[in-house]
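A further point concerns the way the authors explain their paired sequence and structure data. Each protein is reduced to its one-letter sequence and a matching series of backbone shape codes. An entry of this sort, consisting of the sequence and the corresponding backbone structure tokens, reads as follows:
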Amino acid sequence: MDTKDVSDLEKAEKADDGPSGMLRRLEAATNAHDLERLVDCFAPDYENETPAHPARGFKGRQQVHRNWQAIFAGVPDLQARVLHAVSTGDEVWSEWEMSGRRRDGAQHLMRGVIIFTVGRGRAARARFYLEPVDTSDSDVNAAVGATVGTRP
């Protein structure tokens, strides 16, 4: 962890406990690779819903810990950026990009949206739409054809 990361993390921790403050703390903890501070951004009874992959949903902070421990180990230079965020009430809609290089040398690049519901400064729930970026040269016609079972 370099001094910039520590400084950003300390600033984020002093932010408000609303949805935007939680988002800033989560981004800073992710970029500092501070597993304990990252996990502390989530409520003990946190619920993660993954609508595009229903079987991947889970409950509990322990799974957040397991997931991020594996992510930090597998992508040691991971960096996350919140590209856009809009907060209303107890929700924050956030667009993320996460990039780095996996231990096997392959590029790691994910983009998408996470909608957090926040209570008492921690994520209580999320609808998770973050996906690996498809870098193939498959165009929109091929994608639509694959989705509906036809070929252009």
Notes: The chain has one domain: 3-148. The chain is about 35% helix and 35% strand.
